[in-house]
Amino acid sequence: MNSRRLNILLVEDDEDDYVLVRYLLSEIEAWKFDLEWVATYDAALEAFQRNRHDVCLIDYRLGAHNGLELLRQMGESGSRMPMIFLTGQGGHEIDVEAMKAGAANYLVKGQLDSPLLERSIRYAIEHAQTLEVLRKALKFRLEFEGVVGKSRAMERVMELVEKVADTDSSVVIEGETGTGKELIARCLHRNSPRRHQPFLPINCGALPEHLLESELFGHERGSFTGAYARKIGLLESAQGGTVLLDEISTLSPNLQVKLLRVLQERQVRRVGGQETIDIDIRVISATNENLEESVAGGAFRKDLYYRLNVITITLPPLRERVEDIPLLAEHFLEGLNRERQRHIERISKEAMDILQGYAWPGNVRELQNVIERAFSLTDSGTITPSDLPAHLVRKGLAVLPIDTRRPFKEAKRVYIEPFEREYLTKLLLECRGNVSRSAQRAGLDRSSFQRLMKKYSIRSEDYRDA
C-alpha cells in the first residue's frame, strides 16, 4: 500500500463530513491518496462502473436512498471493491446489516481519527486482496470441484473439509497468511446445514479490546460512553449460522473467559445487559500461530482451546505443494489474458523452474503478484526468467534442486541463464547503460556482450537513467 497512491471513493451527502474525512486522510503519513467525492446514489453507481478505486467509504444517509441499498446493489453486481460503512452514531442494528451486505467494517463518524481510519482502510484492502487471490486460486464451489491444485496436501485438506462440513463440530483452521483460511471456512459453511443462514467473519486482531467486545457480544444503550442505542453483537446476529473468529490467538485473557462462557452455556449477554440470549451457532476459528504452543506458554486458555479445537484443519504453505505452482501460475496467466485482452501463451520451462524453486513466504498472493508483474513486463508471448523479479531469480536459483531427469546441458542451462541475465542487468545498472564500459568490466569484447544482451532482450537505454 505504501508504494503507490490510493484511489479512495467517498459516498457522502454532507460536505462538512467530506471535509472531515479529507482532513483525516491528509494526516496519515504512511501513504498518499486521491479522494473522489460523490454525494448521491446515482453518482456513486457511475463511479463504481469506472472501477478505478481501491476502497470506498459509504455513508448511511444518501437523500432518498441509503448506504445499505448501495452496498446490496454493489454486492448483486458482483463488485469486489472493499467498502467501509459510515454511520452518524454507533449502536444501530444497521451496522450489522451493513456487515451482512458486504461491508468490510463500519466506522462511527463521531469517533473517527486518522489512526483508526488508516487501520480500517488498510485492513479492508488487504482483506479484499487476500480473498480475491484465494478465490481465483482455489475456485471453491459447493461440490468441492474446481480446486486449482492436485497435490496430495490439498487433497487431504479437501477430504477433511468434506467429512466435517456436515457436522456442527468446532473447527480450528491453521495456516500461514495467504493460505486460504477464510475461504476454507466459507467452504465449510456453504456445505453445511447452516448454508442458508449468516456467515459472519471477524478479525479479532483488527480491533481494540473494548470495540471487539462490543462487536462480539453487543451492548445495551448507555452501557458505556458513546453507547447511544442497543447494539446486537455478531454472535447473536449469526443465529443459526456460522461465525469465523480470525486471528483467534490475539484474544485478550478477559475476552477468552467471556467467549468460553458463551461456548459452554450457548448463551450470550450483551455488555451492560442482564438478559441472556440463547444462541445456536457454529464457531470456526482461524490462526496463523500454533495455538498449542500459545497454550503451553500461558497466552491462551487450555479450556478454551479444547472447546474450539474439536477438529483441526492445517493448510499447507505454497512451498510444501510445489507441484501446484504450475497450475496456479497458468491459472493466473489465463485470467490476466482474459482481463487485459492479451495473448501471453505460456511460461517458459526455465521460468517455471525458478517459480518452483522459490520458497514463497507470501504464499498464493505473492505468486499472483509475480505473475502479474511478469505479464506486464514481457514483450513476447512467453514469460521467461528475464521477466521475473531479480530477488526471486536469485533465491529461486539458490534453492533450485538439481533435476537429474534432464540431460546435462538442459539442467545446466536452468542455472546458467538466470545467472547470466542477472549479471548483465546488474553490471549495466552500475555502468548506467554504458555497453563498452560494461563489456570491459566483464572481460568480454563489445560484440560478445551485445550478443548476450540480445539473448535476454536487455536494452542498454533502460539503464541509462537508472
Automatic annotation (TrEMBL):
Domain of life: Bacteria
GO molecular function: ATP binding; sequence-specific DNA binding
InterPro entries referenced in this protein's UniProt entry, alphabetically: AAA+_ATPase, AAA_lid_NorR, CheY-like_superfamily, Homeodomain-like_sf, HTH_Fis, P-loop_NTPase, Sig_transdc_resp-reg_receiver, Sigma_54_int
Occurrences of domain Response regulatory (ranges): 7-124
Annotated Gene3D superfamilies: 1.10.8.60, 3.40.50.2300, Homeodomain-like (1.10.10.60), P-loop containing nucleotide triphosphate hydrolases (3.40.50.300)
Sigma-54 factor interaction domain ranges (all copies): 147-376
Coiled coil: none
Pfam families noted in UniProt: AAA_lid_14 (PF25601), HTH_8 (PF02954), Response_reg (PF00072), Sigma54_activat (PF00158)
4-aspartylphosphate: residues carrying this PTM: D59
Alphabetized UniProt keyword annotations: Activator, ATP-binding, DNA-binding, Nucleotide-binding, Phosphoprotein, Transcription, Transcription regulation
GO biological process, one term: phosphorelay signal transduction system
SUPFAM superfamilies reported in the protein's UniProt record: CheY-like, Homeodomain-like, P-loop containing nucleoside triphosphate hydrolases
PANTHER family assigned to the protein according to its UniProt record, in alphabetical order: TRANSCRIPTIONAL REGULATORY PROTEIN (PTHR32071)
Protein name: Fis family transcriptional regulator
Organism (species): Handelsmanbacteria sp. (strain RIFCSPLOWO2_12_FULL_64_10)
